Amino acid sequence: MAAEAEQGFRPLDEASLIAYIKATPALASRLGGGSSLDSIEIKEVGDGNLNFVYIVKSSSGAIVIKQALPYVRCVGDSWPMTRERAYFEASTLREHGRLCPEHTPEVYHFDRAMSLMGMRYIEPPHIILRKGLIAGVEYPLLAGHMSDYMANTLFFTSLLYNNTTDHKKRVAQYCANVEMCRLTEQVVFSDPYRVSNFNRWTSPYLDKDAEAVRQDDELKLEVAELKSMFIERAQALIHGDLHTGSIMVTPNSTQVIDPEFGFYGPMGFDIGAFLGNLILAYYAQNGHADQANDRKAYKKWILKTIEESWNLFQKKFVELWNKHKEGNGEAYLPDIYNTTNLLSLAQKKYMTNLFHDSLGFGSAKMIRRIVGIAHVEDLESIKDASKRAECERAALNCAKTILKGRRQFETIEQVIEHIQSFDRD
Hints:
Number of strands: 12
Strand content: 5-15%
Largest sheet: 5 strands, antiparallel
Strand order of the largest sheet: 1-2-3-7-6
Distance between the termini: 58 Å
Structural class: alpha+beta
């Protein structure tokens, strides 16, 4: 089957992409069809690492085309990479789009043999959230929108809503996204805790800090637990890479993109990725402060957004649970959890565990962004290396203590206080 799929695959360039669009009604119609297709303009906007990403415009419309290559684009065919990630990205976008259409771009077309997807163009002035955080832009609706997205996508793909048969069918479908999961296992849960050629950090300033991570036995034991949970726990259909680079925003709109790591995993991995990246953005602010703007007000806004994101998510998730408690979900059967008090106790325990999972995964994501292979622009764009290292050290120390002590936190407000205690501005 793999050989057959390879036979149908060819990387498209601009000329062959135009021919492909003209021959594909689902795409041609989005651009107006007919004579509109004579004025197509194409711009390649991929970040250069994995995929080709094209913005395609005609006089009557615009779409985005994304094509996965069978190798890491920036390295070449010496580093093979499964093209099937495109199938899982399209599948996750469609499923999450069904559950939360307000914050998920629509998929118009998917061609599995070509590993090619056509989807809605998220038009300017949308920008990547990470870039907005670096620029110090406030997004007043972000916490509300992201809590909607996480509550809906996680609840409706879990056993709180679905029966076991349907759940296991979906888990089996996404099990094949194993290569992308293995990549996460390596870069998040393994490499930062050992000597690896892929690791890097702001040297020489953080040499001792990176070594301390590799020597911290307590940290390693906690990370082992998180890694097991990531591999073993098929809790919900998660995005799998829900950082601030996978979210496009304006002050009024929030769109979640790029779920090529999508699979059935622990809910806390998505929640933690989002919160952990906001915490990294918080610690980066001191490096972006200047005489015109000390960023103190903006740092308060980030903390408020972290707090509201969790509290709103928790509220919405439990509301969905209460609304559908008599439904098909097989995790908490209504004839067993048959009093308000008992169901409330079950929900409290569930949400506390999910909170601690989210703190653990979020902290692990922070650590890998400081001493692992892939860093974040929030910190990387701080030009003064010693200043950057100061911000990174504060974030690293905060993450290590949260990861090790995550079960001691009862509220997000306690976590906010903890974050502030490592801030040296």
